[in-house]
Design a protein that fits this description.
The protein is α/β, with parallel strands linked by helices and 360 residues long. The chain contains 14 helices and 13 strands. It has helices at residues 16-27, 64-78, 88-97, 121-133, 143-152, 169-174, 200-208, 226-236, 249-252, 270-277, 288-294, 308-317, 321-338, 341-358; strands at residues 3-9, 31-37, 52-55, 82-86, 104-108, 137-140, 159-162, 186-191, 215-220, 240-244, 258-261, 282-285, 299-301. It has a seven-stranded parallel beta sheet with strand order 3-2-1-4-5-6-7, with helices on both faces. Strand 4 (82-86), helix 3 and strand 5 (104-108) form a beta-alpha-beta unit. The radius of gyration is 21 Å and the shape is globular.
Length: 360
């Protein structure tokens, strides 16, 4: 009989944590998978290949005591051998709900010092308290994210592993894109949900300074900041176009000259890994996770100097095709050597096996 895992996540919006979970489930057929969400958003449809999907249907985060009660009932009914949580609130709820006899694994997807939740003092207190109350196994998607989690919360690690996010290189090798369109415009692409973390307003301000240059930015993604972002585009006249959310990004992105990410913070960015796998040159905000992820295979810009991004965009637009191609090839090689799906699955199988053998 297969061992059963409950995967507990905020919702199934198309973000990095959600995409990682969906891909992992598909690669682990030896387990029975139950996915539990707090809210009913689901942008994956048939891509999610789980045995059961349960939504708690939380009315708001003010109903958390209800969520603890409800999740405890789900665990009692499903009788999982292991619970794997993603993101802040599912982790807190699981620590308050799950019996000490059942191993709980938590994946830390971001550098928490910069994340929205951890800017609130009570979130740090709640995380520290529940970890001490019910120690669980921690997986971090980057070494820096692991170090920051335990140092910021002043916690001593119980069991902790670094397991880098991954990219399915075979998927992008198999992608069939049409011939790249020739254009006098230097075309830049950004991919990611339209939310504060991604810092699109900074990118728009940079492109406002480049209105007289043949440089254009296309943003692929959806989210709650769409109206605000579009308003700033309209007000500034920046050459930026919102393209919406697409599923075949591997076919689209290679039509561009450069991939731009201006994030305030990231865990281990799936969008950047995918761009690396697709042989795209990268211009990234100078944050620790991007440095750990790409090392010297990308160009970085400051988030404290508003002139740095437009200056580097302009410089890259005048860079030769051969130089851009060499940078992109270095990035792809780094992804292949360090951040593939088989490497991630092998590591996760080991962690699951140890947790199921030893308990928590």
């Amino acid at each position: 009989m297969k061992k059963k895992i409950i995967h507990f996540i905020f919702n199934l919006g198309r973000g990095g944590a959600e995409t990682m979970m969906v891909r992992v489930i598909k690669e682990l057929p030896e387990y029975e998978h139950v996915v539990v969400t707090l809210f009913p958003v689901n942008n994956f449809g048939s891509e999610l290949q789980c045995d059961k999907l349960i939504c708690i249907n939380l009315s708001s985060l003010f109903s958390l005591p209800f969520a603890v009660f409800k999740f405890r009932g789900i665990v009692k009914k499903e009788k999982p051998h292991l619970v794997h949580t993603h993101l802040f609130w599912p982790t807190i709820i699981a620590r308050l709900s799950v019996s000490h006899k059942i191993p709980v694994i938590t994946t830390i997807h971001a550098f928490i010092k910069s994340s929205v939740e951890y800017k609130k003092w009570y979130a740090r207190v709640l995380d520290k308290f529940t970890y001490q109350l019910r120690k669980n196994i921690i997986i971090a998607v980057a070494k820096g994210a692991m170090d920051e989690y335990f140092s910021l919360l002043k916690l001593k690690p119980y069991k902790a592993y670094i397991l880098y996010n991954f990219v399915d290189v075979n998927r992008f090798n198999a992608a069939v894109a049409g011939p790249k369109q020739t254009s006098p415009v230097f075309r830049v692409v950004s991919v990611g949900a339209l939310r504060v973390q991604k810092n699109y307003l900074w990118s728009i301000s940079a492109f406002e300074k480049l209105k007289n240059e043949n440089i254009e930015l296309h943003i692929y993604g959806a989210g709650n900041m769409q109206d605000e972002i579009q308003k700033k585009i309209n007000e500034t006249g920046a050459k930026v176009i919102l393209k919406g959310e697409v599923k075949n990004i591997e076919v689209i992105i290679t039509q561009y000259d450069l991939c731009l990410m201006a994030s305030f913070y990231e865990g281990f960015s799936l969008s950047v890994l995918e761009a690396m796998a697709m042989n795209m040159p990268l211009l990234l905000s100078d944050i620790p996770s991007f440095r750990e992820q790409c090392e010297n295979t990308a160009v970085y810009f400051s988030l404290t100097d508003e002139n740095d991004l437009p200056k580097k965009l302009l410089a890259l637009s005048k860079t030769t095709l051969e130089q851009l191609k060499a940078m992109a090839e270095n990035g792809k090689q780094r992804a292949i050597e360090n951040f593939t799906l088989p490497q991630h699955i092998k590591g996760l199988r080991t962690i699951y096996s140890e947790a199921l053998s030893n308990g928590v």
